[in-house]
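Inputs:
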Amino acid sequence: MNSVAPALLILAPFLAALLCSAFSWLERRLCFPTALLGLCVSLLAALDLLLQAGPAGVIQYKMGGWSPPFGIEYRIDALSALVILIIACIALLNLAASHRQVLRDMQDRFGTFYAVYLLFVTGLFGVTATGDLFNLYVLLEITSLTGYALIAMGDGDRGPLSSLNYLFIGVIGASFYLLGVGYLYIMTGSLNMVDVARLLPPLYGSSAILVAFVFCMLGIWIKMALFPLHVWLPNAYTYAPAAVSRVIAPLMTKVMVYVMIRLMFTVFGLEYVFEQLDLSRTVVWLATLAVLAGAVMALAQRDLRKMFSYVIVSEIGYMVGGAWLGNELGFTGAVLHILNDALMTFALFLVLGNLLFRLRGVSFEDLRGSFVGMPWTMAGFVLAGLSIIGVPPTCGFFSKWYLILAGLEAGAYQFVAALVLSSLICAVLFFRIIEIAFFEAPGPSSGDTGQNGQLREAPVSMLIPLGLVSISLLAVGVYAGSVVRGVIAPFLGLYPIP
Amino acid sequence: MHWQLDLFILTLVIFCALAAISVKDLLSTAILFGAYSFMMCLLWAGMGAVDVAFTEASVGAGVSTVFFVAAVFRTTRRTKD
Amino acid sequence: MVDLLTHIVAKYNYWLYIILMMIGLYAMIVKNNLVKKLVGMNIFQTSIILFFVSIGYKKGATIPIIENAHGNGHGGKQLLIRAADYINPLPHVLMLTAIVVSVATFGVALALAVKIYQRYQTLEEDEIRMRLTRK
Amino acid sequence: MKFFGFLIVSLCGGLLLYASSEFPDWGDPDSPASRHLSPHYIEESLAETGVPNLVTSVLADYRSFDTMFETAVIFCAGLACLLLLRKYKPETDRYYRHIPTGVILHFKNSRKSLPVGSEFELMDADWVPYDLVIKTVCRILIPFIQLYALYVVAHGDFSPGGGFQGGVIFGSSLILLAISYNLRTAVQRIKERVLGFLCVLGVLIYAGLGVLCMFLGGEFLDYSRLAAILPADPVHVRALGMLGVEIGVGIAVMAVMAAIYVNIASAGRHDEGL
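Outputs:
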């Protein structure tokens, strides 16, 4: 019998969501501990999976006991185990960090909120672990549907509208993906990823497979907000409640990047993607555009939330470009950047959450002098900013380094130039904010102040997760080498890049 | 299924789809949308997908339309396009 | 000419789904009213369902319910079942799930539309945008 | 915008049309889709699962994991509507009707309330007198609709139908109750809390059966393990397991459909509506 960890990973948050929803009618105080317990169990399962997947290569779990092409299987390799671990950590930390904020903002409906939150995390786990193309669609829809609901909870004025826009675009994305799966199914007759990969090589020249690939990729790109398709992202992330944007911003786009990598590597095959199709150059150009456009648009913003959203748009360009450069260095950089960017974005949005807990808004005027009132929060901000810029001891440096080397190796000089330029722009962005927060005197209208009119530091329960993430920003930087050896090398061993 | 009937339903499906998105009254849209779903369900039943047709008949033509009418009741019938 | 005609007859269902998909997508992109966009979204989704159901169809086969299974008791070892006699059930299963997903999305979207209407008293996108900029 | 939309749409349509020329013919029995997986499902599933309706056997057994998340999607939709629309504060504008005389009282911006009973009844702002024909017909119809829904759930193994369709039909009978009487009556009959519990219960039955199979030593949702506790052979027990999950799906879908309708029709206040 196999290990039960893959099933436990999905079931723990799923059952916890059901219980939370039941408790919201019975005894509301039980909701938070149930949610916490569910995510703790899946964190343990995720750790177990990572430890197993490194040496074993691939962990399989057959749902319903049916063997793969007929039933649904879960396939977890070292790379997906890493992504799962990131999801579990961030979801758990965010849950702990946002408890007070949720109690304050959601009042009588926090039980339902936790249920929806847990279902969102369940969907993310499933998307990462599944080995079935259609199951991926169903789980993607769970993630999106809960995402729409969570985003619409936010800022009363714009929340529902930006959520509905996100819904329209998200449905187009998911339907495009489903169309792609349909084209694959009509040509191969299978839905299992490994089985499809086995059946595809004789069909490589077919135009239907080409269209299937294009539509799968388009769907995923819409969901991850690659540059021209990013229009839904800034509003959705800006007007979502802080507790929600903190988990959606770091995870949703990164998981989609992972899904893209998974489709490229395990379904269509690298030989098809890089040798049969001549798309690599085009996509790297697209990614270059995304990096530049995101950075420039971030420069134009006067609101911290909007600015961070555009920084995410720019970071997506890094990962897509890295994955499509078609060499091992680029892939390593892209995967490292998934890990790093999830952590950096999470740190940034934790800082945002802390600021929003005390301040009325986060436009630049509101930030004046916040260093004095909230030193720890702003210290976390500085560290996350340094990491996004790519200053050496932090983890952001290493992935950028790999990406730049990969760009040079592949001869994609425009991509390298865009990387360097966007790092410079990020430096401008963050130092401008640090200057405002450090040197300018606090404005007259600074929101929630203490007895003596001073801005107060965020509560400890919100500072501890920020501290942990800030430490991990440094730790992941130091241990980047072992991530490359332990996770990326085994994966590349399974799917060597031609 | 006879091809004449098939063709008739196909024409109706496209007609209902076009009418549903172009009529200038949301309540009419709701009804046309229900008709569209029902025609679709006939088409699927003709292709032997009985379970799918059954679901579409109860969901698309039934409950979805009711949700739609309820939403129109709570909002407005007015539309500019 | 005959060649083209047989080609059309052999594939017309696939073409129909493309036409419906185009109608739906067009409505989603161009329409100004949020509920109209929703209708477009639903047409788009049903067109994909039509595509999948068309994949499952098999000439000379019947609906995917095994005949005479009752009389032979469960297990049905004696029954000779040939794959050519029954329509492929897999796309139907997938599309049941897709219909459910689409009605769930539809419900959530309508709830959002009601909420937006409560806030802005209109469902027209340009009027909402006007209200937002005026503030 | 119109031109832009038209461009995108024709681009997508053209791309899809270009690929469809490579498809196998419509209804071709030798297409890959009909040759690869489906023969196994068609030829073996009766022997392996004991269910003649192939769609049910694939839906609730081979791909039951998908179906569990399909139920979860519906559950999400119910939760989302609740989260988005539900307002717990009662309206301050209220209308009462004095039943013996038919006089209508309007309370504006006040917290006062009248005892609702044989003398006064709450009524909607846009109230229409009850229609005797509609009321009677619906009264007769609703039990039959519900009976039919139960039949659809229970007979899903042998004929088209199953938990989802049955649940929707049952849910629509509740919606019919709300439409033919008024929303207030329907909400009083089926309390919001009960609907909430039924949503959870349905999904929990599904997931719980799966977890039970894990406890009995199998994989998640491997119904054949239920043979250890049910008096049936491993093939027949799969049919029983499927019936169990179908019931779960039916309950969840029924409750969610009613909940979504109530929330949308009353814009979350659960008092007056269509």
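Remarks. The helical segments of chain C are 2-30, 34-56, 90-120, 125-134. Residues 33 and 124 of chain C are 5 Å apart (CA to CA).
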